[in-house]
């Protein structure tokens, strides 16, 4: 009964090991019966022993099994064809050395005879028809044959050529509209489904597949109507011609309109240097990538980089409206010489600027990328320099730079490392050496010099012993800055009181820095906790490709750590008259001391005995954080404890 149950359950579950052995033996018997049916008896068949099975395997390995083809004439000498039945014969060296011969003569003859029979049959059927039907079938056959073969240019009138080309151009434009729509819907995810764009043929496609499809479309558009094809990639060939003409005319030209320049200013006037963003510069980035060997690969890298920087439409517009170069490379009927269609094409590509792509950063993960970091101190309340030895470590989704020492009195540094992906955190600190060791840092700005992505890591805290919470290092959570116009840049790069690092908002209401900051009431704190927890739950319920950064949800501006800190700081007496400020970590250390002394008391109530395991775990975490060889402050230790507890 168990065997029968296992046989039934194997239809939808994995087979039982013993059942698998039984089925394999049944299958072996069936194959044996098909190959040698005369040796199969209806009563009993003796099983093979291990020794016989091993000998059979050895024989198969020594001589290759061969299934003979149908009998045919052999071109060999007498005696050379002797071989054992069921095994491949010895190869004839003279036949192999003679070269190929026409062995298809029998097949050619049979095919020729079959065609002759078909013609005779059609001729006999044709003779049985009357004259009207004969004429009708002859005309149909002529028109059908003419439509099948490739039409000659002499057979087509200028009107037909224009109409055919117009349909092709319209098809390219329609395909561009559909592809851009699919890319937008894919990035919008569930929001697109709610807006009524969740068709089955659109959703579910991978981003890389859609971008590769867009690259193929651009190659076909740039291949249409070429005067002379040069290289494997028509787009890259056009870009090389454009680069050559521009460098001859006036060197490297900047993008028109000034939208390519990015400037980040701080409250102190310190700013990131202008980053030149131009079509030629992006081409050079693709040309400098040693991992790419072909023109097609360079063209795709350039497309991905332009798409990530949201300048693909702008670059292609600059390329397509160089009329002298277009006339030189393309015929009159080419897509790139249709003015109205070009405008619509660029309009469709412009819609891709509405979403954020990281298709260059996430694909080329092994390339070396230059970065630039600027440390912006708060100069109004402290010196902008420090006599200690500062260091910085930049981390991203793909790795980190490790600890990098910063030269004294230098607030800006450039470095090159393997692609870090999207930047997540920055660790900054110093060794507390020298006379001016206390350092008040407003924020840290880090920019990818290829993609132009600029990340801001708010701080607003002191670094140094005997000030603030006594921390010598801070972990800053970053946010990607969106490109803005130049007059708004100075506003964006400042650090408002509500956008400081994880523990900044609370400290601003305690220290002299932010006496103007308002403390949240209990209702606002409860709402903030609910919102932060809901965001984390939603994060894990989303598809993986739609998830954001969990670090921001935990330690960001409105993250879980910030909300829980507000819980502890509500009505907390941190400031003492003529005494040092008291931190939440001081309260936690006192709680640990209480738990450890209470645990030694054997006369505990029954309800407290059940909490001893939780007390013990809590004390282990706090003691481990205190004994860690890192110079993080008390607020940093609280943040670490909350993150470990959430995990």
Automatic annotation (TrEMBL):
UniProt main location, coarse: membrane
Domain RUN: 205-365, 551-647
A GO MF term: guanyl-nucleotide exchange factor activity
Subcellular localization, as worded in the UniProt entry: Membrane
SMART domains for the chain: RUN (SM00593)
Keywords: Guanine-nucleotide releasing factor, Membrane, Repeat
Gene3D superfamilies assigned: 1.20.58.900, PLAT/LH2 domain
Region of interest (Disordered), ranges: 99-123, 487-521
Ranges of biased composition (kind: Polar residues): 99-113, 492-512
Residue ranges of domain PLAT in the record: 369-477
CDD domains given in the database record: PLAT_RAB6IP1 (cd01757)
InterPro entries, A to Z: DEN5A/B, PLAT/LH2_dom, PLAT/LH2_dom_sf, PLAT_RAB6IP1, Run_dom, Run_dom_sf
Gene Ontology cellular component list: membrane
Family, per entry: Belongs to the RAB6IP1 family.
Protein name (record): DENN domain-containing protein 5B
Organism: Callorhinchus milii (Ghost shark)
């Amino acid at each position: 009964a168990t065997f029968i149950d296992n046989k039934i359950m194997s239809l939808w579950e994995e087979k039982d090991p013993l059942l698998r052995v039984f089925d394999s033996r049944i299958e072996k018997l069936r194959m044996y019966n098909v190959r040698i049916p005369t040796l199969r008896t209806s009563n009993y068949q003796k099983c093979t022993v291990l020794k016989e099975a091993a000998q059979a395997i050895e024989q198969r390995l020594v001589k290759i099994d061969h299934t003979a083809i149908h009998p045919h004439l052999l071109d060999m000498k007498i005696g050379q064809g002797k071989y054992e039945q069921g095994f491949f014969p010895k190869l004839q060296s003279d036949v192999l050395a003679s070269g190929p011969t026409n062995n298809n003569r029998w097949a050619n003859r049979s095919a020729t005879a079959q065609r002759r029979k078909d013609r005779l049959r059609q001729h006999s059927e044709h003779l049985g028809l009357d004259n009207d039907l004969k004429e009708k079938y002859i005309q149909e056959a002529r028109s059908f044959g003419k439509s099948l073969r490739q039409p000659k240019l002499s057979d087509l009138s200028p009107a037909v050529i224009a109409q055919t080309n117009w349909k092709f151009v319209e098809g390219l434009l329609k395909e561009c509209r559909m592809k851009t729509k699919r890319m937008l819907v894919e990035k919008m995810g569930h929001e697109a489904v709610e807006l009524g764009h969740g068709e089955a043929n659109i959703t579910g496609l991978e981003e890389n597949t859609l971008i590769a499809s867009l690259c193929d479309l651009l190659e076909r558009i740039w291949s249409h109507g070429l005067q002379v094809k040069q290289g494997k990639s028509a787009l890259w060939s056009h870009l090389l011609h454009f680069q050559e003409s521009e460098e001859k005319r006036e060197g490297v030209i900047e993008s028109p309109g000034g939208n390519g320049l990015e400037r980040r200013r701080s409250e102190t006037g310190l700013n990131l240097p202008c980053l030149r963003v131009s079509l030629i510069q992006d081409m050079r980035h693709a040309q400098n990538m040693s991992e790419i060997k072909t023109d097609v690969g360079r063209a795709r890298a350039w497309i991905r980089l332009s798409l990530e920087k949201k300048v693909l439409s702008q670059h292609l517009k600059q390329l397509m409206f160089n009329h002298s170069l277009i006339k030189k490379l393309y015929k009159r009927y080419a897509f790139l010489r249709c003015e109205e269609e070009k405008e619509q094409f660029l309009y469709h590509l412009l819609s891709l600027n509405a979403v954020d792509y990281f298709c260059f950063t996430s694909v080329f993960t092994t390339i070396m990328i230059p970065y630039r970091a600027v440390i912006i101190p708060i100069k109004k309340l402290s010196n902008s320099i420090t006599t200690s030895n500062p260091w910085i470590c930049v981390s991203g989704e793909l790795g980190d730079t490790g600890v990098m020492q910063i030269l004294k009195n230098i607030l800006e540094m450039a470095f090159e490392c393997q692609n870090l992906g999207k930047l997540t955190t920055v660790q900054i600190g110093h060794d507390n050496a020298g006379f001016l060791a206390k350092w008040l840092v407003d924020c840290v700005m880090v920019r990818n010099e290829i993609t132009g992505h600029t990340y801001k890591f708010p701080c607003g805290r002191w670094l140094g012993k005997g000030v603030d919470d006594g921390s010598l290092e801070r972990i800053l959570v970053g946010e990607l800055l969106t490109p803005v116009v130049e007059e708004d840049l100075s506003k964006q790069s400042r650090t408002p009181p509500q956008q400081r690092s994880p523990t900044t908002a609370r400290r601003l209401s305690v220290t002299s820095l932010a006496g103007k900051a308002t403390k949240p009431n209990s209702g606002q704190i409860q709402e903030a906790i609910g919102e932060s927890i809901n965001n984390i739950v939603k994060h894990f319920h989303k598809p993986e490709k739609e998830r954001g950064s969990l670090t921001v949800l935990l330690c960001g501006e409105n993250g879980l750590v910030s909300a829980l800190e507000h819980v502890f700081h509500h009505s907390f007496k941190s400031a003492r008259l003529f005494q040092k400020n008291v931190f939440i970590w001081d309260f936690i250390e006192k709680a640990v001391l209480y738990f450890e002394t209470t645990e030694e008391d054997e006369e505990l109530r029954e309800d407290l005995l059940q909490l001893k395991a939780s007390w013990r775990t809590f004390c282990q975490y706090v003691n481990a954080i205190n004994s860690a060889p890192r110079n993080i402050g008390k607020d940093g230790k609280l943040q670490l404890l909350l993150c470990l507890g959430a995990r």
